[in-house]
Amino acid sequence: MNKPRITVLGAGSIGCYLGGRMMQGGAAVTLLGRERLAKVMAQKGLTLSAHGRATIHLDEVDFASDPVALAGSDIVALCVKSQDTADAAALIRQHAPTAWIVSFQNGISNLATLRDGVPDAVIGGAVVPFNVTSPGPGRFHRGTDGGLVIGPGAPEIVSGALRAAGVGVRIVDDIDAYLWAKLLVNLNNALNALSGGPLRDGLLQRGYRRVLIAMIEEGLAVAAAEDVDVATFNGRHPKTLIRLMARPDWLYRIVMDRIAKIDRTARSSMLDDLEAGRGPELDYLQGEIVRRAEAHGIGAPVNRAVMCATQDAFAQRKTPRLSGADMERLFLS
């Protein structure tokens, strides 16, 4: 029997990494992304590396840049930025309207957008807990640990291929609770864009962590107002992460080295977007918290302040390289 055909729509850093791992696990995968990457893949192939794992190289990669490549897809692994979800849904509806869509995106609103935009598709969500950056042409590096969390009824070929490639996968009944947990952790992306350095360097600063704690606490208040029972992220509830981050710098450093396992070069995709001149996902991270807080008549001043500062950084197309002390002074005083 022919293998189900998987198309990764939005083959950037996360899409190329996940698609490459599915290829490694034996799945038939087409990567659909920018023409620039198509040329790179044709010349150099696809190289995948990960914190604590051996590097692999795939010579033959089916990489397309024309959306018509969606036609005939059995499964669409969606990895576009949240601000591009509606456009992606229109493309899927045109070329593969009955495909099985698995959203590997940030944010908590994408599944609803996809259900509205592709009504005949089967739609599910997934949480990607790790960070992926591109250190060179055709190279994609996973800098943090963690296994994927996928909602109920996901195609077995997706989870099976990922597991065969050594990627941890857990199937859960309530993916929305896990999407909320990731949203709260991803509030860190804006701080990383404002700091301009590796994630680890920022998190080792008390002021940086205090701002992140304040944003997560505001997000938890919104979740409580919406009766959402937020799940864990990489096995830890956001409230546990808050307790860990509240520790002194010297103790948090020990916690990070023993538990967090963050590659010293890992950074957020939002910082990559800032440096590349692309738009941010702020409306679906801090913006989501601010909008929902307003709807419930509660405040989210720290999320709002960080969002405005990050919008300014994107408008100027450069990071202000704020220290943790700068952030504490700007956002908590």
Short description:
By secondary structure, this protein is α/β, with parallel strands linked by helices.
List keywords for this structure.
globular; alpha/beta; N-(1-d-carboxylethyl)-l-norvaline Dehydrogenase, domain 2; 16% strand; eight-stranded mixed β-sheet; four-stranded mixed β-sheet; Rossmann fold; 333 residues
What does this structure look like?
- This protein folds into 2 domains: 5-173, Rossmann fold, CATH 3.40.50; 177-332, N-(1-d-carboxylethyl)-l-norvaline Dehydrogenase, domain 2 (Orthogonal Bundle), CATH 1.10.1040.
- It contains 15 helices and 12 strands.
- It has helices at 13-24, 35-44, 85-95, 110-117, 156-164, 175-186, 188-195, 199-203, 206-225, 238-245, 249-260, 269-276, 286-295, 301-316, 324-332; strands at residues 5-9, 28-32, 46-50, 53-58, 63-64, 75-78, 100-103, 122-127, 132-136, 139-142, 148-150, 169-171.
- The protein has an 8-stranded mixed beta sheet, sandwiched between helices. A 4-stranded mixed beta sheet has the order 4-3-10-9, covered by helices on one side.
- The radius of gyration is 19 Å and the shape is globular.
- The N and C termini lie far apart (63 Å).
